[in-house]
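SAMPLE LOG
Freezer: B-3
Tube label: C17
Construct: single chain, 151 aa
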Amino acid sequence: MNNLGAEMSAGDKLEPRTLQEKINYLLEETYPDGAPSDREFCRIVAGRGGALSHSYFGKLRKGEITEVRDETLKAMGLGFDCDWRFFKPESQVEAEVAAGLRFLADKRAGGISGIAGRGISEEGLPPDLLNFALDIMEKARQEAQERPAGT
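STRUCTURE (predicted):
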């Protein structure tokens, strides 16, 4: 058994799934000559414009804390120079991707036009809001098809 908690055959790489596994994977992959201390890593984060406590990062690395705010994930993304969404649970990322693909499909099919986004963050609409908008459009489309012609 390896440090990621699953058996592997020789030469196979296992995808990290938990936050702790992802952090330790990136520490190994990003710093092949030896990972920085928690304090050094947090200095790297600060040097790139983020903020992260070394004691908090240590608890994340050890798996003592498993649920964090997006701001913390963004800070770790700065430290590892990777997209912060890498640290999100797979189900959340899948939901965001599925909602985004559904939105794009409706847009390409002509079901969505003239949308102006105001106050939307750089990540776009949250998946629940995107799904809500898509559900409303689908309901309106169905109602339009059910109406008799000329009404």
